[in-house]
Amino acid sequence: MRTARRMRLQGAGNVRDLGGYPCGETITAWQCCYRSDMLNNLTQEDWKKLQEADIQLILDLRGKTEQIQAPYDSERYGIARVSLPFMKEEVPLADSLDEQAQKRFLDSMKLDYVDMVRAVPEAVCAALRHIRNTRKAGHAVLFHCTAGKDRTGILAALLLKLCGVCNEDILADYQVSATYNALGVNRMLPADVMAIQAVRALLDSTPDMLQPLLTMLDEAGCFSYLKSIGMRQDELEELSALLQEP
Protein backbone atom coordinates (compact mmCIF):
# COMPACT_ATOMS: atom_id res chain seq x y z
CA MET A 1 0.00 0.00 0.00
CA ARG A 2 1.26 3.49 -0.86
CA THR A 3 1.99 5.57 2.22
CA ALA A 4 3.96 8.51 0.76
CA ARG A 5 1.47 11.33 0.21
CA ARG A 6 3.66 13.69 -1.81
CA MET A 7 4.53 12.83 -5.39
CA ARG A 8 7.93 14.36 -6.06
CA LEU A 9 8.09 15.95 -9.51
CA GLN A 10 10.70 18.23 -11.02
CA GLY A 11 8.20 20.62 -12.58
CA ALA A 12 5.53 20.88 -9.86
CA GLY A 13 6.00 21.15 -6.12
CA ASN A 14 2.55 20.66 -4.60
CA VAL A 15 1.39 17.26 -5.92
CA ARG A 16 -0.22 15.09 -3.25
CA ASP A 17 -2.24 11.90 -2.90
CA LEU A 18 -5.54 12.31 -1.02
CA GLY A 19 -5.28 8.78 0.36
CA GLY A 20 -4.79 7.68 3.94
CA TYR A 21 -7.17 9.96 5.85
CA PRO A 22 -9.37 8.21 8.45
CA CYS A 23 -13.07 8.14 7.56
CA GLY A 24 -15.35 5.97 9.66
CA GLU A 25 -14.05 2.40 9.78
CA THR A 26 -11.64 2.85 6.88
CA ILE A 27 -9.40 5.45 5.17
CA THR A 28 -9.51 7.39 1.93
CA ALA A 29 -8.11 5.32 -0.92
CA TRP A 30 -4.50 5.66 -1.98
CA GLN A 31 -3.54 6.19 -5.64
CA CYS A 32 -7.04 7.36 -6.46
CA CYS A 33 -7.12 11.17 -6.41
CA TYR A 34 -4.23 13.59 -6.60
CA ARG A 35 -4.22 17.35 -6.04
CA SER A 36 -1.62 19.56 -7.68
CA ASP A 37 -0.37 22.98 -8.61
CA MET A 38 0.17 23.97 -12.28
CA LEU A 39 1.57 21.37 -14.66
CA ASN A 40 3.03 23.45 -17.50
CA ASN A 41 6.62 22.91 -16.32
CA LEU A 42 6.49 19.13 -16.03
CA THR A 43 9.37 17.19 -17.57
CA GLN A 44 9.00 14.02 -19.61
CA GLU A 45 10.08 12.10 -16.51
CA ASP A 46 7.32 13.84 -14.53
CA TRP A 47 4.71 12.84 -17.10
CA LYS A 48 6.02 9.29 -16.93
CA LYS A 49 5.37 9.30 -13.17
CA LEU A 50 1.78 10.41 -13.77
CA GLN A 51 1.36 7.60 -16.27
CA GLU A 52 2.82 5.09 -13.79
CA ALA A 53 0.29 6.32 -11.21
CA ASP A 54 -2.46 5.39 -13.71
CA ILE A 55 -3.70 8.97 -13.88
CA GLN A 56 -6.06 8.91 -16.86
CA LEU A 57 -7.78 12.26 -16.35
CA ILE A 58 -6.68 15.76 -15.38
CA LEU A 59 -9.26 18.32 -14.26
CA ASP A 60 -7.91 21.81 -14.94
CA LEU A 61 -9.62 24.19 -12.51
CA ARG A 62 -7.78 27.29 -13.72
CA GLY A 63 -9.43 30.21 -15.46
CA LYS A 64 -9.26 30.55 -19.24
CA THR A 65 -6.56 33.24 -19.02
CA GLU A 66 -4.36 31.03 -16.85
CA GLN A 67 -4.81 28.11 -19.22
CA ILE A 68 -3.73 30.24 -22.17
CA GLN A 69 -0.74 31.70 -20.34
CA ALA A 70 0.54 28.37 -19.00
CA PRO A 71 -0.59 25.58 -21.37
CA TYR A 72 0.46 21.94 -21.42
CA ASP A 73 -0.34 18.92 -23.58
CA SER A 74 -1.30 15.99 -21.36
CA GLU A 75 -2.89 14.13 -24.26
CA ARG A 76 0.57 13.69 -25.74
CA TYR A 77 1.13 11.32 -22.83
CA GLY A 78 -2.24 9.61 -23.10
CA ILE A 79 -3.87 11.59 -20.28
CA ALA A 80 -7.15 13.39 -21.00
CA ARG A 81 -7.63 16.97 -19.77
CA VAL A 82 -10.96 18.63 -18.98
CA SER A 83 -11.22 22.39 -18.47
CA LEU A 84 -13.45 23.25 -15.49
CA PRO A 85 -12.76 26.81 -14.27
CA PHE A 86 -13.63 26.98 -10.58
CA MET A 87 -13.96 30.75 -10.13
CA LYS A 88 -14.82 33.93 -11.96
CA GLU A 89 -12.31 35.02 -14.60
CA GLU A 90 -9.34 36.46 -12.77
CA VAL A 91 -7.25 39.52 -13.54
CA PRO A 92 -3.81 38.11 -14.48
CA LEU A 93 -0.69 39.10 -12.60
CA ALA A 94 1.54 41.42 -14.59
CA ASP A 95 5.33 41.36 -14.35
CA SER A 96 5.06 44.47 -12.24
CA LEU A 97 2.09 45.99 -10.45
CA ASP A 98 1.39 49.67 -10.04
CA GLU A 99 -1.17 50.75 -7.45
CA GLN A 100 -4.17 50.44 -9.77
CA ALA A 101 -3.01 47.07 -11.09
CA GLN A 102 -2.60 45.85 -7.52
CA LYS A 103 -6.16 46.91 -6.72
CA ARG A 104 -7.59 45.18 -9.82
CA PHE A 105 -5.74 41.96 -9.03
CA LEU A 106 -6.68 41.92 -5.35
CA ASP A 107 -10.31 42.77 -6.11
CA SER A 108 -10.45 39.84 -8.54
CA MET A 109 -9.30 37.48 -5.80
CA LYS A 110 -11.68 38.61 -3.04
CA LEU A 111 -14.22 35.81 -3.35
CA ASP A 112 -14.22 33.69 -0.25
CA TYR A 113 -14.41 29.92 -0.61
CA VAL A 114 -18.14 29.71 0.08
CA ASP A 115 -18.80 32.30 -2.62
CA MET A 116 -16.43 30.51 -4.99
CA VAL A 117 -18.32 27.22 -4.64
CA ARG A 118 -21.69 28.93 -5.01
CA ALA A 119 -20.50 30.75 -8.15
CA VAL A 120 -19.69 27.57 -10.10
CA PRO A 121 -22.23 24.83 -9.22
CA GLU A 122 -22.13 23.33 -12.71
CA ALA A 123 -18.33 23.01 -12.60
CA VAL A 124 -18.48 21.42 -9.14
CA CYS A 125 -21.01 18.82 -10.28
CA ALA A 126 -19.08 18.15 -13.48
CA ALA A 127 -15.86 17.63 -11.52
CA LEU A 128 -17.51 15.17 -9.14
CA ARG A 129 -19.05 13.21 -12.02
CA HIS A 130 -15.77 13.08 -13.94
CA ILE A 131 -14.02 11.75 -10.84
CA ARG A 132 -16.76 9.18 -10.24
CA ASN A 133 -16.66 7.94 -13.82
CA THR A 134 -12.87 7.68 -13.89
CA ARG A 135 -12.80 5.85 -10.57
CA LYS A 136 -15.54 3.46 -11.77
CA ALA A 137 -13.25 2.60 -14.67
CA GLY A 138 -10.50 1.81 -12.17
CA HIS A 139 -8.22 4.75 -12.91
CA ALA A 140 -6.84 7.72 -10.98
CA VAL A 141 -7.62 11.43 -11.36
CA LEU A 142 -5.50 14.53 -10.83
CA PHE A 143 -7.03 17.97 -10.38
CA HIS A 144 -5.16 21.25 -10.19
CA CYS A 145 -5.22 25.03 -10.41
CA THR A 146 -2.19 27.35 -10.42
CA ALA A 147 -0.90 27.12 -6.85
CA GLY A 148 -2.85 24.00 -5.92
CA LYS A 149 -4.33 25.83 -2.96
CA ASP A 150 -7.66 27.65 -3.41
CA ARG A 151 -9.68 26.00 -6.18
CA THR A 152 -7.82 22.73 -5.73
CA GLY A 153 -8.27 23.03 -1.96
CA ILE A 154 -12.00 23.52 -2.37
CA LEU A 155 -12.44 20.39 -4.50
CA ALA A 156 -10.18 18.38 -2.18
CA ALA A 157 -12.23 19.53 0.82
CA LEU A 158 -15.50 18.54 -0.87
CA LEU A 159 -14.15 15.08 -1.69
CA LEU A 160 -12.73 14.49 1.79
CA LYS A 161 -15.91 15.82 3.42
CA LEU A 162 -17.97 13.51 1.22
CA CYS A 163 -15.97 10.58 2.62
CA GLY A 164 -16.52 11.67 6.21
CA VAL A 165 -12.98 12.86 6.91
CA CYS A 166 -12.91 15.13 9.97
CA ASN A 167 -12.43 18.87 9.61
CA GLU A 168 -9.10 18.79 11.44
CA ASP A 169 -7.60 16.43 8.86
CA ILE A 170 -9.10 18.41 5.97
CA LEU A 171 -7.57 21.61 7.35
CA ALA A 172 -4.23 19.87 7.88
CA ASP A 173 -4.22 18.70 4.26
CA TYR A 174 -5.04 22.23 3.11
CA GLN A 175 -2.27 23.90 5.10
CA VAL A 176 0.47 21.79 3.52
CA SER A 177 0.17 23.89 0.35
CA ALA A 178 1.82 26.89 2.02
CA THR A 179 4.94 24.85 2.79
CA TYR A 180 5.37 23.42 -0.70
CA ASN A 181 4.41 26.63 -2.51
CA ALA A 182 7.07 28.58 -0.62
CA LEU A 183 9.59 26.40 -2.45
CA GLY A 184 7.72 26.23 -5.73
CA VAL A 185 5.09 28.35 -7.43
CA ASN A 186 5.61 31.40 -5.18
CA ARG A 187 9.18 31.70 -6.43
CA MET A 188 7.92 32.12 -9.98
CA LEU A 189 6.16 35.39 -9.13
CA PRO A 190 7.98 38.71 -9.62
CA ALA A 191 9.74 40.00 -6.50
CA ASP A 192 7.73 43.24 -6.45
CA VAL A 193 4.52 41.22 -6.54
CA MET A 194 5.61 39.02 -3.63
CA ALA A 195 6.59 42.16 -1.70
CA ILE A 196 2.91 43.13 -1.47
CA GLN A 197 1.58 41.94 1.88
CA ALA A 198 -1.94 41.41 0.56
CA VAL A 199 -0.61 39.22 -2.26
CA ARG A 200 1.43 37.13 0.17
CA ALA A 201 -1.70 36.69 2.29
CA LEU A 202 -3.63 35.44 -0.74
CA LEU A 203 -0.94 32.84 -1.38
CA ASP A 204 -0.99 31.56 2.20
CA SER A 205 -3.15 28.63 3.31
CA THR A 206 -4.26 29.25 6.88
CA PRO A 207 -7.20 27.40 8.52
CA ASP A 208 -9.38 30.52 8.63
CA MET A 209 -9.48 30.57 4.82
CA LEU A 210 -11.06 27.12 4.47
CA GLN A 211 -12.99 26.94 7.75
CA PRO A 212 -16.04 28.93 6.54
CA LEU A 213 -16.60 26.41 3.74
CA LEU A 214 -16.37 23.50 6.17
CA THR A 215 -18.77 25.26 8.53
CA MET A 216 -21.25 25.78 5.69
CA LEU A 217 -21.00 22.10 4.75
CA ASP A 218 -21.48 21.06 8.38
CA GLU A 219 -24.56 23.23 8.74
CA ALA A 220 -26.15 22.26 5.42
CA GLY A 221 -24.86 18.69 5.34
CA CYS A 222 -22.33 17.84 2.63
CA PHE A 223 -24.66 15.44 0.80
CA SER A 224 -27.61 17.82 1.12
CA TYR A 225 -25.65 20.79 -0.19
CA LEU A 226 -24.27 18.88 -3.17
CA LYS A 227 -27.76 17.58 -3.97
CA SER A 228 -29.07 21.15 -3.86
CA ILE A 229 -26.68 22.14 -6.66
CA GLY A 230 -27.51 19.22 -8.93
CA MET A 231 -25.97 15.97 -7.69
CA ARG A 232 -28.07 12.87 -6.98
CA GLN A 233 -27.93 10.85 -3.76
CA ASP A 234 -26.88 7.67 -5.58
CA GLU A 235 -24.09 9.50 -7.41
CA LEU A 236 -22.72 10.87 -4.14
CA GLU A 237 -22.92 7.53 -2.35
CA GLU A 238 -21.14 5.80 -5.22
CA LEU A 239 -18.43 8.47 -5.40
CA SER A 240 -17.87 8.34 -1.65
CA ALA A 241 -17.42 4.56 -1.79
CA LEU A 242 -15.04 4.81 -4.74
CA LEU A 243 -12.84 7.23 -2.80
CA GLN A 244 -12.44 4.93 0.22
CA GLU A 245 -10.45 1.76 0.81
CA PRO A 246 -12.76 -1.30 0.83
Helix and strand topology:
Blueprint: E1 16-17, E2 22-23, E3 26-27, E4 33-36, H1 44-52, E5 55-60, H2 64-69, E6 80-83, H3 99-108, H4 113-119, H5 121-136, E7 140-144, H6 150-163, H7 167-182, H8 191-194, H9 197-202, H10 207-220, H11 222-228, H12 233-242
Parallel strand pairs: 4-7, 5-6, 5-7
Antiparallel strand pairs: 1-4, 2-3
Helix pairs in contact: 5-12, 6-7, 6-10, 7-10, 10-11
Protein name: Tyrosine specific protein phosphatases domain-containing protein
Organism: [Clostridium] innocuum 2959
Domain Tyrosine specific protein phosphatases: 111-160
Protein model, in words:
With 246 residues, this protein is α/β, with parallel strands linked by helices. The chain has one domain: Protein tyrosine phosphatase superfamily (Protein-Tyrosine Phosphatase, Chain A, Alpha-Beta Complex). Helix content is 48%, strand content 10%. It has twelve helices and seven strands. The strands form two sheets. It has a five-stranded mixed beta sheet with strand order 1-4-7-5-6, with helices on both faces. Strand 2 and strand 3 form a beta hairpin. Helix 5 crosses helix 12, helix 6 runs antiparallel to helix 7 and helix 6 runs parallel beside helix 10. About 2% of the residues have low confidence. Belongs to the protein-tyrosine phosphatase family. This is Tyrosine specific protein phosphatases domain-containing protein. It holds the Pfam family Y_phosphatase3. One of its GO terms (molecular function) is phosphoprotein phosphatase activity.
